[in-house]
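Quick one: structure tokens for this chain, please?
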Amino acid sequence: MPLKSSKAILGLAVVVVTAAAGVYALLDGGKTVTAIDPSDAELVALGEGIYRETCAACHGINLEGQPNWRTRNANGTLPAPPHDETGHTWHHPDRELFKYTKFGGAALAPPGFKSAMPGFQDTLTDHDIWAALSFIKSRWPERERGQQTSITERNRS
């Protein structure tokens, strides 16, 4: 009897997992985001609010960054760089920008490099991070957008 019981439990588990995946797909509406998408107006609007609440204090309301962002502070960190076309954000692929935002600079920086960039894994969902990055990219001129898209495509694994 225990064998039949184990099979029944396994069968029930499969049904529950399949049902949960189906419900998630329905509720998600096919909107799982795994890349920066500046053409998605809804995502960009969400990202603008997230950026203003979470990022603008350091990176500027207009993505302008902090003054002298290339000169180290006394503690060895760099000021927050601009996220507009004058900065280097668009030089990095989507996945790298996502990881940097989620885990913070210290988690991804090479040994000896000090970063003041915090990670947001405990305060923002992955969807929120993609939305904020989509807002940032939506503000870049077409040239920088195109170059960043090419960089992302070359770095897909």
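Residues 10-30 have pLDDT under 50 and may be disordered.
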